[in-house]
Known about the structure:
There is one protein chain. The protein is of the alpha/beta class and 274 residues long. The chain has helices at residues 2-32, 38-59, 62-72, 79-84, 115-123, 143-146, 157-166, 178-190, 210-220, 230-236, 263-267, and strands spanning 128-132, 168-174, 204-207, 224-227, 242-246, 257-260.
Amino acid sequence: MGAESFAEEIRQLIRGICSSLSLRFSHLVAYVFDPKHASSIGALAGFAIALVCTWKYLKTPSRSRKRLDKRDGPSDASPEGASTGTSTAVAPYMTNPSQRGVAIREPAVPTQLTLAQIVRRRLNGGRKMTCQLLGVIVEETVPEELQKHAVVRSAVVDVLLELAQACDLYLIARIIDDQSEENAMAALDAVGAFSVGGLNRNKVLFCSTEAGRASFVRQLEPDWHVDTSLETLSQLARFIRYELHITTIAGHTAANIFGSDTLENYFGSLGQLL
């Protein structure tokens, strides 16, 4: 009996609680839909929306907020704009002329070409050169002088070394005996043609006649040939792209034959153009 009465009391307690909650809920619904309290409900809803927006803004990363601020543009005007009352504000990142697309002309700095650059320009794309030794590279002009001694002209040394490095250079000399060959090779070695310029010893060629020199040139098929003999140059003019006549007499006999008093004056300066 005690257990049954306790269960009955529990059921009555639950019914009472449910009745109380139902009554309170009905009062709440009536309060919400009452026109007298509509303004209070709207204020409450607005306050809730404001809370949600504030929470979302605080949750946004700082980088995104900076981008939004940049879109609005700078708010501070320049001192001149503030004094005149105008609204011409200049952004800090637009004060550099190069960033505004304005071309800046820098003063021209004179550049001086090196001898190596001048030599390469003079070659005009030529990769192989044949050059007479007597009268062009050495002071001796005839084979008989070469029998006694050989001296490389001091003024031509620098250009000779640059030509040896810039192109495939062949030197051709007409000689009488083996002693002349030894003198010529010793003179070239003394100025560093082989060690500094990198000239191949096997590319110093010797012959006994003028025809032999012309034959060498025909077989090698160079882009340039330098010679003191106008007759030899004229014979080779149709086979060689460029020819240089070492002479003190002005005038060209063919379109591809150029003239200069020395090798260094032609390949060491840009005074005479092709």
